Amino acid sequence: MTGYSGNRRAVTAALLAALGTSAVVASEGDAGKKAPTVEPAAIQALEKMSAYLRTLDSFSLEAEASADAVLDDGQKIQFDRDVTVDFAKGKGLKVDSVSPFRHLTYFYDYKKLTLFSPDMRYYASTEAQPTVAKTLDEVSARYGVEMPLADLFYWGTERLPVGAITSAVNIGPGRVHGAACSHYAYRQADVDFQLCIAEGDHPLPLKLVITTTDQPEQPQYEARMAWNLKPHFAADEFTFTPPQDALPITFRPMPAAAAENQ
Q1: Is the pLDDT of residue 92 over 80?
Q2: Domains of the chain, first to last
Q3: In angstroms, rounded to a whole number, what is the distance separating the alpha carbons of residues 120 and 235?
Q4: DSSP characters for 85-137?
Q5: How far apart are CA 96 and CA 82, in angstroms?
Q6: Which of 38, 158, 170, 175 is the most exposed place for a label (fewest CB within 10 A)?
Q7: How far apart are alpha carbons 147 and 134 in whole angstroms?
Q8: Strand partners, 117
Q9: Can you give the pLDDT at residue 160?
Q10: Per-residue b/e over 77-105, b at no fewer than 16 CB within 10 Å?
Q11: CB under 8 A, 24+ apart: contacts of 251-259
Q12: Beta strands 247-248 and 76-88: pairing type?
């Protein structure tokens, strides 16, 4: 095993050199000995991106997303989906998520949040909170509903405090969908995440990778995003009008949430 480990490090270093990437390849014996690194420039990049996102009055993005599912024997299988996010401040949010197994559309108009299944023809609605972030918190805690790419509305808020980051490093230059970006890696208590942030005047996240580190298999979620900062939405874009054949159902509270209301 020692010889294999040494060869692996040599191959990794050669590949990094061939790619023009600077990195330190540590031996397995060095693991855990170095204190976590928090580079100010990496934190500043995250804060700059977060602040910029909060200034956007409207946007539309298309994302190619992948998520790991862990089988009973520990093998990870990756499943893909296409996600579209449309947002206009003061008007609403619409998220469309399509996978080979499920198609879900989320509508938020500052009055209600509705989850609609075009395939199964059912929908459920709940009263909304005054902001997207608070509404997402509410439906997650109460109903276990997790909207794709919810972090877009959490960065720059108390929901994702920079102070919780224990490691932050600048990996170097990156490229996503042909666009130049900077690649950063961050670590929190139970989650590692990577961000590729566009260069220039629009520091948008172009790629997000989340690794769940409190599970032995460490499943990952990845999304590559293409942005439109000048979208045109129909007047009823964010209002859900149920089709005639659609059936209303009721969100079922999670056990913990139900117990709190008793």
Answers
A1: yes
A2: 40-252 (2.50.20.10)
A3: 26
A4: EEEETTTEEEEEEE-SS-EEEEEE-SSEEEEEETTTTEEEEEEPPSSHHHHHH
A5: 8
A6: 158
A7: 13
A8: 122
A9: 75
A10: eeeebebbbbbbeebbbbbbbbeeeebbb
A11: 251/115, 251/124, 251/126, 251/139, 251/142, 251/143, 251/145, 252/143, 253/142, 253/143, 254/141, 254/142, 254/143, 254/144, 257/141, 257/142, 257/143
A12: unpaired
Q: How confident is the model at residue 224 (pLDDT cuts 50, 70, 90)?
A: very high
Record the tokens describing residue 44, joined without a space.
């500043």
Q: Name the token pair of 3.
A: 């010889």
Q: What is the residue whose two structure tokens read 């805690």?
A: 141
pLDDT at 17 > cutoff 70: no
Q: CA-to-CA distance for 65 and 152, rounded, in angstroms?
A: 14
Q: What is the token pair recorded at 202?
A: 């629009």
Residues 6+ positions from 88 with CB-CB distance below 8 Å: 57, 58, 231, 233, 237, 238
Q: The pTM is what?
A: 0.82
The structure tokens 């993005």 sit at 61
- The backbone torsions φ and ψ at residue 205, rounded to the nearest 5 degrees and listed phi first, read -70, 125
Q: How far is CA 163 from CA 29, 57, 189, 238, in A?
A: 29, 27, 11, 34
Q: Is 160 helix (H, G, I), strand (E, B) or coil?
A: coil
Tokens encoding 229? 């900062």
Asked whether the beta carbons of 115 and 124 are under 8 A apart, the reply is yes
